[in-house]
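Sequence, please.
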């Protein structure tokens, strides 16, 4: 375990980084997020919401032209060409156009915030897949090095058996330990390959390189975990989208109440009868007389507005839960990594004593093999704890909009 011992010493006595390293280049991340299908779909829906807002602002009422031509035949008088034409258009009553514009604006706001949240979710997926890959690669490096160390240990034991300085049982034990280490190395290499394949499939434009970077040591954010937790709520696009939906539903309910009085239609009519002997022009007016149907639609819109307001409150609860969970996980994952680091340091010290005792003939090979395995397990545990701490801190930074998805205050 000499290389593992050296790596462990470097890990234990290195100074924590000020910023959070280990993440891909921000420009590459931005391009990968822009290219993700979920982000593209959300941006397209934003364009649809803007088009709908323009349609609502203009209104659905259009000028309607209608006309007719008749050839009338009258006994003993002959035939006559007769025609008429009319233009009509409905007009929104005062206040309805303003409500339609508000509905469109709130719809655009909701779509824009959902597009930002889609980017947020894509960023979380990228971070999750990224740390899956780096964590699996870190474990694979530990297992490969352990297999190499067991190979060298077995060679040393066989040389001692050849000169009758050790029993064949010692060689058998060393070979069994090597077999277990090789199995662990194959399994961890497979997990690394799967994690890389998943990351490359979800984000094909993200440059990955031939090998995964090492998982760096975690560092607590300069602002503090609690401050970032507050930013999770403050910068939440989920809350902004839910609030926009609630305001849109409220404006829609007001529009439905206003629509209980139907919009009137005005127009002009011109006609010619009996071959032009009779001509005329006039003004047209029509207005539907609303009844129970329009009242029911207004009641429906009121109920939907109330439900949407409750949905917005539920979203606030969910985002607050996310913030609390992010802060709690960041704290305990960082503390767990520190304890794993301390445990690794103790295992390294114990192994050093076992190695010296075995060389002096005071400790059996089985005891040294046990110590080697415990150090190997301690390295894997520390690597796992380090990866999970980095994963939790990265998630907190993404949810607080400190990295990758902007730091706007809107």
């Amino acid at each position: 375990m000499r290389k593992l011992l050296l790596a462990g010493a470097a890990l234990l006595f290195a100074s924590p980084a000020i910023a959070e390293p280990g993440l891909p280049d921000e420009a590459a991340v931005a391009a990968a997020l822009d290219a993700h299908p979920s982000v593209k779909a959300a941006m397209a829906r934003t364009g649809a919401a803007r088009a709908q807002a323009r349609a609502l602002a203009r209104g659905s009422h259009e000028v309607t032209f209608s006309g007719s031509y008749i050839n009338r035949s009258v006994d003993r008088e002959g035939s006559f060409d007769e025609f008429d034409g009319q233009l009509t258009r409905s007009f929104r009553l005062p206040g309805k156009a303003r409500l339609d514009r508000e509905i469109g604006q709130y719809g655009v706001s909701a779509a824009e915030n959902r597009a930002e949240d889609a980017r947020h979710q894509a960023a979380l997926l990228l971070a999750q897949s990224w740390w899956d890959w780096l964590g699996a690669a870190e474990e694979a490096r530990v297992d490969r090095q352990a297999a190499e160390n067991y190979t060298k240990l077995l060679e040393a034991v066989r040389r001692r058996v050849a000169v009758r300085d050790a029993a064949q049982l010692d060689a058998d034990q060393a070979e069994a330990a090597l077999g277990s280490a090789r199995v662990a190395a194959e399994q961890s290499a497979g997990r690394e390959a799967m994690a890389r394949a998943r990351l490359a499939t979800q984000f094909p434009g993200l440059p990955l390189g031939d090998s995964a970077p090492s998982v760096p040591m975690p560092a607590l954010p300069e602002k503090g975990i609690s401050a970032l937790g507050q930013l999770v709520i403050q910068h939440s696009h989920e809350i902004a989208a839910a609030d926009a939906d609630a305001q849109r539903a409220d404006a829609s309910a007001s529009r439905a109440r206003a629509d209980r009085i139907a919009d009137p239609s005005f127009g002009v009519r011109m006609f010619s009868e009996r071959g032009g002997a009779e001509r005329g022009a006039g003004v047209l007016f029509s207005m539907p007389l609303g009844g129970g149907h329009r009242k029911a639609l207004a009641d429906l819109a009121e109920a939907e507005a109330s439900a949407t307001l409750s949905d917005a409150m539920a979203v606030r609860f969910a985002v607050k839960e996310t913030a609390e969970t992010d802060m709690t996980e960041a704290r305990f994952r960082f503390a767990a990594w520190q304890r794993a680091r301390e445990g690794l340091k103790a295992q390294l010290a114990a192994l050093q004593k076992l190695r010296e005792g075995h060389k002096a003939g005071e400790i059996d090979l089985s005891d040294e093999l046990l110590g080697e395995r415990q150090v190997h397990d301690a390295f894997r545990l520390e690597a796992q704890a380090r990866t999970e701490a980095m994963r939790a801190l990265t998630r907190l930074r993404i949810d607080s909009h400190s990295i990758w998805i902007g730091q706007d205050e809107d």
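DSSP finds nine helices and four strands in the chain.
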